[in-house]
Every structure is written in C-alpha cells, then in structure tokens.
Amino acid sequence: xxxxxxxxxxxxxGSQATLLEKQFNLPHISTGDMFRSIMTEDxxxxxQVNEYMERAELVPDSxxxxxxxxxxxxxxxxxxxxxxxxxxxxYQATELDKIINIDSAILLDVTxxxxxxxxxxxxxxxNCGEVYSTKFYKQDNCSICGSVLETRLDDNAxxxxxxxxxxxxxxxxxxxxxKSRKKxxxxxxxxxxxxxxxxxxxxxxxxD
Length: 208
Ligand code: AMP
What we know:
Layout: E1 2-6, H1 13-24, E2 28-30, H2 31-38, H3 44-54, H4 61-72, E3 81-84, H5 90-99, E4 104-109, H6 112-121, E5 122-125, E6 131-133, E7 149-150, H7 157-180, E8 184-188, H8 193-207
Parallel strand pairs: 1-3, 1-4, 2-3, 4-8
Antiparallel strand pairs: 5-6, 5-7
C-alpha cells in the first residue's frame, strides 16, 4: 500500500498518518518533519532549508525532490508507506510517478474557517510530536511524555494566508492530477479525529 495523504495545512494529515501507521503497520513519512530536522543541521542544505521554512514557504522543487526521492528509495519503504506532505507541487507528483507507483491519494477535506482555528490553537510536543489544541488542552506539558509544548514556527496569523494561497496555487493542481488518474479519494476532515480515522480505515481496507 503506497498512500499519499493530502490536505491543506492543519487538515490533520500528521495525526491521521500516525494512527494509520499503527493500524496498517505502514511507515509514516512526513516531509514536514524531515525538513524540520534538516533545518537544524549546520550544513549548506540545512541553512538553505531553514531559509524557506522560516518564511513558511515550500522548499524549492530542486531541493525537495532530491531529498525526498532519495529517502523513499530506502528498502524499508518497498512494501508501502503513508506519505504525508508530499507531493505538494505538480512537478513533485510527476517526478514521483517516475520512481514509484502510488496506489491512492487521499485528500482530507476541511473548511478554511476550521483550518484557521486549528492553526491558531495548535501546540506540538517538542519531544514526541503529539499535537494538541489549546482550546481543549490547557496544560503546558505533553500528557504522554511530559515535555514542553511549543507553537510551530509557521503557525501564526501572518503566515496562514500565505500558506493557504500556496496550497491553492501549488498543491490543488496535484489533487486534480490524482483525480484525473482515478487515484483520488476524498474524506471529510472536519469531524473529530477518531471519526475521520474510522472513515480512512474503511476506505483503505476497501481498496486493499
Ligand atoms: P508541514 O509540516 O507538512 O506543514 O511542512 C512544513 C514545511 O516543510 C513546509 O512549509 C515546507 O517549508 C516544508 N515542506 C514539507 N513538505 C514539503 C514539500 N513536499 N515540498 C516543499 N517543501 C515542503
């Protein structure tokens, strides 16, 4: 099962991919996490990635395709994976098709009002990556590992608009691309995490 999980910022891709990873025993590959790790490295690549991520912009295709495609060719992904956050441009999608046959692309469809609220209330555990909403969770530390919760660098009112525009211009065409290849499935993502997960599980089981 080679699955691409798509959706606008804060649509729940990361949370759902983590649950699906456990359910189907498939590795979860988050390109956002990959780049967040690379940006901390004191290397030319780290500094370049840092520049784009600080501005909440996509890392250019010339860099992202090389980094991600090299990673995807590792033997542990031969049997399948859940790819979260990639491809995000049409060029990434067409280049990916040259090396891997993706089985399905699942879009988490969430209204923009809901996304905006999620982004402005999102906190992430520095250590284990667990995601919280300050709307429901009032503590400063993670309930799983106790580490301090922090706000993502790109989760703020100034960058939201920019990230949404980037999604509409660059990533929406990827949704159309998979639709034209009859690989696209849409799941309503406004519902609570568990409900979305049940729908995803059913969809993936039916398509297996
Ligand atoms: P995410 O956690 O998926 O929202 O990604 C965080 C950041 O990582 C993005 O704003 C980009 O700077 C970078 N990134 C993640 N995936 C990609 C991608 N497919 N192409 C380019 N940049 C990416």
